[in-house]
Write a structure and sequence with these properties.
Blueprint: H1 3-20, H2 26-42, H3 47-61, H4 72-87, E1 103-108, H5 115-128, E2 133-138, H6 144-153, E3 160-161, H7 169-182, E4 187-192, H8 199-213, E5 217-223, H9 230-240, E6 245-249, H10 257-266, E7 270-275, E8 283-285, H11 288-296, H12 300-324, H13 330-340, H14 346-351, H15 363-381, H16 385-389, H17 396-406, H18 410-428, H19 430-438
Parallel strand pairs: 1-4, 1-5, 2-3, 2-4, 5-6, 6-7
Antiparallel strand pairs: 7-8
Bound molecules: guanosine-5'-triphosphate and magnesium ion.
């Protein structure tokens, strides 16, 4: 039985049984939660994580307000999808050389985890992405490693550097780096040895490689078949190299893949790619949301989530109309800004507004906006109902009190108030109202 696919199979079953049940009552949700628990525990996911997840699903299932036109069942499906995704960390992996050339990646990992195979997969992936790539074989313990790499990569026009007669990995790697610099290579991937006579000498070798080469990114290659044990390796590595990242391999063969992924995600280490087979192409960037969607069964889950989000968008439109009729509160503003940071169709509605830059917010801008919203939400919570209803009464001493209560600077409170005044003025503007009207609002 194959692993992630076996987790996928059981999850998919449980999930589609829930979707086809006559109603989403307490019993159906309980059966769903138990089914999810069973599949996750079978995949070696930590008991505590499974318990937390179950509690959150149970708690959200019947307490959330349904957007108009959305069934309880669809909303619960979306909750399950969100909670499972959160288990893997929200953010998809991103690869970037940050303009550095060559960008040097060193692959590390114990024997047999799949470093050499992964070096070839990663090189091929980055070449397809448009980078000029080279691979250095710095494994002097396994003479076949150089051959293995050449066989995989030469047919793909990816150069491999090696020195079969040299037994100093640090020198080989330094020479290889020099060689690829002259070739104008953009990304250099260094494959290191996993096999050694002693563990200590392996560690020494890694340290001197690190010191001499100063890689831009160390990537730890972890074998997914070890299940939640992977968390221990990841935690140690993450502590030593917080800028490093992780690739988990063999997710196709292991029944414990879910355990490996969740345990590593829990350490805060970034999972950048996953290996899902022996072939060079069996490799993908790790995207938690897409991964969970594939486990739950596409395209079902995607269309449900889309549907619920669209309904939420409709309620946004309601609020927008209320605002245009003059009821624009501080909370409205924070809600508006906060919906800017949500991904997906919500951004579409906002792109209808003539706000500069809303359509093309970069990830950095979104992150900035998210930070600001957190602050603003805290500030509004520290206000009295009176102040919220009539921000005009907020003077210097109130600003001081509010900023202390919210744990922010006075400057932050002033900024919020200023944005509020500006937005309110904008909404009163005749021209803008006309524009919104012609774009389908009001
Ligand atoms: N099914 C499957 N097999 C994999 C995957 N990645 C690697 N392998 C297999 O795992 C075995 C070991 O892979 P290598 O790439 O040689 O591992 P390594 O870490 O370089 O090994 P050492 O250099 O000895 O430390 C090979 O048989 C690979 O085909 C994967 O994602 N899926
Ligand atoms: Mg190897």
């Amino acid at each position: 039985m194959s692993g992630v696919s076996s987790l996928g199979r059981t999850l998919k079953d449980v999930f589609s049984r829930f979707l086809s049940a006559p109603s989403a009552d307490k019993a159906a949700v309980e059966e769903l939660v138990r089914g999810i628990q069973r599949s996750l525990l079978m995949a070696d996911v930590k008991v505590e994580l499974v318990q937390k997840l179950s509690e959150r699903i149970r708690q959200r299932a019947f307490s959330e307000k349904l957007p108009p036109g959305v069934s309880r069942k669809d909303n619960i499906a979306k909750i399950v999808y969100e909670e499972l995704t959160a288990l893997l960390g929200e953010k998809p992996a991103k690869f970037s050389t940050a303009g550095k050339k060559p960008y040097v990646i060193m692959l590390l990992g114990i024997q047999g985890t799949g470093k050499t195979t992964t070096a070839a997969k990663l090189a091929n992936y980055l070449k397809v992405e448009g980078y000029k790539v080279g691979v250095v074989c710095a494994d002097t313990y396994r003479p076949a490693a150089f051959q293995q790499l050449k066989q995989l990569l030469e047919p793909r026009q990816i150069p491999v550097y090696g020195e079969p007669s040299n037994n100093d990995p640090v020198k080989i790697a330094a020479n290889g780096l020099q060689f690829f610099k002259q070739q104008n290579t953009e990304v250099v991937i260094i494959d290191t040895a996993g096999r050694h006579r002693q563990q200590e000498s392996l560690m020494e070798e890694m340290k001197s490689l690190e010191k001499t080469l100063k890689p831009d990114e160390n990537i730890l290659v972890i074998d997914g078949t070890i299940g939640q044990q992977a968390g221990i390796h990841a935690a140690a590595f993450h502590k030593a190299t917080p800028v490093g990242s992780i690739i988990i391999t063999k997710l196709d063969t292991s029944a414990k893949g879910g355990g490996a992924l969740t345990a590593v995600a829990e350490t805060g280490a970034a999972i950048k790619f996953i290996g899902v087979g022996e072939a060079v192409e069996d490799f993908q960037p790790f995207n938690p949301a897409a991964y969970i969607a594939s486990l739950l069964g596409m395209p079902d889950i995607e269309s449900i989530v889309e549907k619920v989000k669209l309904a939420e968008m409709a309620t946004d439109e309601e609020r927008m109309k209320a605002m245009l009729s003059g009821k624009f509160t501080l909370e409205d503003m924070v809600n508006q800004v906060s919906s800017l940071t949500k991904l997906g169709p919500l951004r579409k509605i906002l792109s209808k507004l003539p706000l500069p830059g809303v359509d093309g917010l970069s990830d950095e801008q979104l992150e900035e906006a998210e930070k600001r919203i957190k602050k603003w939400t805290a500030i509004i919570k520290s206000m009295t109902p009176e102040e919220r209803a009539e921000p005009g009464i907020i003077d210097g001493s109130r600003i001081r009190r509010i900023s202390r209560g919210a744990g922010v600077l006075e400057r932050d409170v002033k900024e919020l108030l200023k944005s509020y005044q500006t937005s309110r003025k904008m909404l009163k503007d005749r021209k803008l109202r006309h524009l919104l009207k012609t774009r389908g609002f009001e």
